[in-house]
Write a structure and sequence with these properties.
Blueprint (H helix, E strand, L loop, with lengths): L2 H7 L6 H7 L26 E2 L4 H10 L4 E3 L15 E3 L6 E4 L4 E5 L4 H10 L2 E2 L11 H6 L16 E7 L5 E5 H12 L7 E8 L1 E2 L2 E11 L1 H11 L4 E6 L5 E11 L10 E2 L2 E3 L23 E2 L19 E8 L3 H9 L2 H4 L3 E9 L14 E8 L3 H15 L5 E2 L9 H6 L4 H11 L8 H7 L3
Parallel strand pairs: 1-3, 2-3
Antiparallel strand pairs: 4-5, 5-9, 6-10, 7-8, 7-9, 11-13, 11-15, 11-16, 12-13, 12-18, 14-15, 17-19, 17-20, 18-19
This protein binds flavin-adenine dinucleotide.
The site of flavin-adenine dinucleotide has 34 residues, from strand 2, helix 5 and strand 9.
Length: 451
Amino acid sequence: MNKRDFLKTSGILLSGAAVSRLVPAEQTSQTTGPRTNWAGNLTYSTDHLYAPASVEEVQQIVKRCDKLRALGARHSFNAIADSTANQISLEHLDEMTIDDKAHTVTVGAGVRYGKLAPYLDSRGYALNNLASLPHVTVVGACSTATHGSGIHNGNLSTIVSAIEFVTADGSLATLSHAKDGDTFNGAVVSLGALGVITRITLNLLPTFQMRQVVYENLSFDQLQHNLDTIFGSGYSVSLFTDWQNHRATQVWIKSVVRPGEAANMPPQFYGATLATKKLHPIAGHDATPCTEQQGIPGPWYERMPHFRMNFTPSSGAELQTEYFVAREHAYEAILAVEKLRDRITPLLFITELRTIAADNLWMSMAYKRDSMAIHFTWKPEWPAVKALLPLIEKQLEPFNPRPHWAKLFTIPPAQLEAKYEKLPDFKSLVKQHDPSGKFRNAFLETNLYTT
Ligand SMILES: Cc1cc2nc3c(=O)[nH]c(=O)nc-3n(C[C@H](O)[C@H](O)[C@H](O)COP(=O)(O)OP(=O)(O)OC[C@H]3O[C@@H](n4cnc5c(N)ncnc54)[C@H](O)[C@@H]3O)c2cc1C
């Protein structure tokens, strides 16, 4: 449906104010210049972006569009959020409501972690984990099983306790952990297929302080027998590598600070050396955008992400890829990828290795599998990266790698589908709420609906 058709058929055309909110959001910040994702590697296939100001307006837009795809903060690297017809941004739905009895927060779909986290902290609460950056929306992140690190920490979707969404016929539905059991496990990592999520509820922890310590040059040999201990040495641990010299260039250990407890910062960690200044994970990059290191305590939300809210995360002009393998095979998987080091390094800004606890969410990359994720931040050289990905995927094949839903991969659809045993149930669930495939886009058609 184009803008004119939409306005013609819109029942709220009579109100100037309503129209301006419902007009495809050419006036919003996301539509100056070509409409691209955050990394700029993808130009969206439609100019029709709606930016409703209320749940009722979302319902009206959903009813009127034949095809529609929800858009979060545009941080996905592939076409998962793309549409050739219409996109809808919920950036104006930004309310946050804490339930002190239930220890939950319910947020509008436009809320980003960077806004939510300080608010929660000021009210005495924390989230279980955060991704490397706070710029993404809670809903966009949870819809793709976005994760942080920590062998005991599930991905960000694992603390979702309820979702409210608009189904294909425009009605409002809710699903919750409390009342919907395993169906809810199917709905959380929805990949945008279930409907337009308007609100999401998260379980909260009491607030806590953290500190972050960085070590340099950890030999991969140490991972052969100590991988679990190394990744378990903090609440959240990340290893970075450029794949050269058989070592992690940096180890970032994020630990919970208990009142009165001094920082435990031995000068050596499994042969790696304590960093004496703040470091960026990518060698030679200015560390100013990074969160505080060197054991300085601070709130959880200023230590768990690697990058501070008001700065560009990561490198900026970049591409990302990430594969999840079972943690029990993590060391072998690292060695398998290492064989390609001289093909990888010239195209790479940095690799990050993180762990994620197993969960029950049907479409999660960590479904029923304690995992280690092998992440690549690539230089923006897509033809060369695209040629390399099948080689990495072949190396990882014995470990049944699951690619991150929001990043770049080339695993053939039939193989991908086989990695998700609950995919048939997921498709049935989607069909209940979207019988005609209104929310299905080319990415989903290709990757989930070819077989
Ligand atoms: C610099 C950088 C660092 C990153 N670091 C990490 C990391 O540490 N860990 C990690 O796991 N990932 C990471 N990512 C990936 C990122 O977390 C995911 O791409 C995430 O999905 C982005 O959320 P978003 O708000 O930008 O959503 P988008 O990319 O806009 O959308 C993602 C998906 O969510 C769906 N969606 C969004 N809003 C709604 C809604 N209201 N209703 C229904 N569906 C919706 C979209 O349709 C789409 O399928 C990183 C990305 C970047 C650019």
